[in-house]
Amino acid sequence: MKSLNLWLCCSHILSLISPSFNCSFASQFHKSSGRQRVMEKRLQEAQLYKEKGNQRYREGKYRDAVSRYHRALLQLRGLDPSLPSPIPNLGPQGPALTPEQENILHTTQTDCYNNLADANVRRYLQLTQSELSSYHQKEKQLYLGMFG
Fold it and tell me: Are 68 and 56 in contact (CB under 8 A)?
């Protein structure tokens, strides 16, 4: 890392002395490290949304949980290198994911999709139960109205 910093410093000095000196590697390095930080931030935000979704799920707030899982998946959108890009080679390409980042990405995606499915089923059951309860109340009222 020290040699890279030294090279960056020297290339900057050379570009000041001779404007024709091309230090594209230095600019690419800075762009790449910026993209790496953005990628790290998106992975962290996705994990945070997933944890918030888990908390809402434990509280029985399934609709809020679904919303948080969706937000987590939106943060991860576009980071997965195994998915094809809709328009390849358009715009800057992001840096490759490290194996650790790729593991975090796939684990978070899998957890979010599984939790999303479970929360949707629970929400459906919750709505179905309230509809059945409402139906039984109407049935009782009808019965009492006919014979009461």
Answer: yes
Kindly tell me the sign of the dihedral angle through the C-alpha atoms of 102, 100, 38, 34.
Answer: negative
Q: What is the pLDDT of residues 6-50, one digit of tens each?
A: 444 555 554 545 545 455 544 444 455 777 888 899 999 999 999
Closest CA to 28 of 77, 116, 92: 92
Distances (CA, A) of 84 to 18, 77, 79, 81, 88: 42, 12, 11, 7, 8
Domains of the chain: 32-81+98-148 (1.20.58)
